[in-house]
Specification:
Elements: E1 3-9, E2 12-17, E3 28-31, E4 37-40, H1 50-53, E5 61-64, H2 70-73, E6 82-84, H3 89-94, E7 134-135, E8 141-143, E9 148-153, E10 162-166, E11 171-175, H4 192-205, E12 209-212, E13 218-219, H5 220-231, H6 240-250
Parallel strand pairs: 4-5, 5-6, 6-7, 11-12
Antiparallel strand pairs: 1-2, 2-3, 3-4, 8-9, 9-10, 10-11, 12-13
Helix pairs in contact: 4-5
């Protein structure tokens, strides 16, 4: 099975689909609680995720999607409890390709390792519909019994992007609202002005640990650096095809280790 678990903090692990180019490799977060566990985002669905997680817990699982994009929602359908923002409910329910933005440039670039996923065909790849079983929105609290997370609505990258914030530990699970890389604000449903407000909010939040939707976790100083870079126009993803061509030119191995144990192709 092409999944790997990376322990990150007590009760927090990152699961990754290996064989996915590191810039597209979604961080699937498994947060263990006293009464139930959280699964935050579910990757592309290249491997059965629920049965993999069941090997390490016997607790009920709540799957939370930070947003509906294909690299985050592929295995959402496997879970009985599926939570997300109502603004993207139609996309989760529709699945397929267009609704979850697997179209355009994303269908034309090679971000799957053929040696690891030889049966992957980007022309036929699709996301299984996963209607939400419940909505979450700003101010809701997800209580695991011994730790709790406040839901933050963080629109801009997508209309229904959400984050989960543990005020006690100042830990934020941010989805794609922010990550350590060039920020993407050019999807058809992205809103740059709203995104700017979201990033300004994140700078005021006081988060000390950020577990993002892609790339390794980082701290508050790095968050400011990423956001200030975006505001200056230096940390914005350009045209996807151009960006990918530059990425290929500068990277010897797109499936390389992310400096997390055992990750890579």
């Amino acid at each position: 099975m092409s999944l790997v678990t990376i322990p990150v903090a007590p009760g927090v692990s990152c699961i990754q689909e290996t064989g996915v180019a590191n810039f597209m490799r979604c961080n699937i977060w498994h947060v263990q609680g006293r009464d139930c566990d959280l699964v935050i985002d579910t990757g592309m669905g290249l491997n059965p995720l629920k049965q993999y997680i069941a090997q390490s817990t016997d607790k009920p699982l709540k799957a939370i999607a930070t947003h509906s994009h294909f690299d985050h929602s592929g295995s959402l359908h496997e879970f009985d409890c599926r939570l997300g923002h109502k603004l993207e409910a139609e996309a989760f329910a529709a699945g397929g390709r267009d609704a979850v933005l697997f179209k355009g440039a994303w269908t034309e670039i090679d971000f799957i390792c053929p040696q690891r996923h030889g049966d992957f065909d980007r022309q036929t790849f699709t996301i299984t519909p996963a209607p939400l079983t419940g909505y979450i929105d700003e101010g809701d609290v997800i209580d695991l019994g011994d730790r709790a997370f406040q839901v933050l609505h963080l629109p801009g990258h997508s209309p229904g992007s959400i984050g989960l914030y543990d005020l006690k530990s100042a830990t934020l699970f941010s989805g794609d609202a922010i990550y350590d890389g060039a920020l993407l604000d050019s999807h058809p449903h992205s809103d740059k002005q709203i995104y700017r407000h979201t990033l300004e909010r994140l700078q005021r939040l006081g988060a000390e640990v950020i577990h993002a939707g892609h790339s390794p976790s980082f701290g508050g100083e790095k968050l400011d650096e990423i956001i200030n870079g975006y505001f200056s126009g230096q940390n914005v993803m350009p045209d996807v095809k151009e960006w990918f061509a530059e990425f290929q030119a500068n990277e010897n191995d797109p499936y390389a280790n992310q400096n997390w144990p055992e990750s890579g192709c």
